[in-house]
Amino acid sequence: MTQPPTPDAPTVLLVDDEAALADSLALWLERRYRVRVAYSGREALQTFDESVDLVFLDHNLPGLSGESVLEELSRRVDPSSFAVVMLSAAPGDELADLPVDAVLTKPVTKRDVFDAADRFVGDAPEAKLD
């Protein structure tokens, strides 16, 4: 049985209006990280605080876009205090000018998600990927 993450494990915020995807990502990541989920840009802004280490952010959110969320978060806290992985159905080249740490093209795999998380907030104990 996998142990839950420790209280000092990195915190990951998942932001996607596709609830099934956000919930799947949360299930994958909660074995290694403390996870929060937001299903809209506005909810992301309410959920985010300085304890968040990594944000997986959908680019194409209805209402408040992922890009707008990123701009607002960067005004609130030092952008170097957290990493951002943008999720998009569009090819990564279209998002090349955004100030994000990485872009994952949907559909994402479990390996893609863990590789990105480990790259930016690694040092979490290994968890089985299947």
UniProtKB/TrEMBL annotation:
This is Response regulator / transcription regulator. Residues 11-121 form the Response regulatory domain. One of its GO terms (biological process) is phosphorelay signal transduction system. Coiled coil: none annotated. It holds the Pfam family Response_reg. The keyword Phosphoprotein applies. InterPro entries: Bact_response_regulator, CheY-like_superfamily, Sig_transdc_resp-reg_receiver. Keywords: Phosphoprotein.
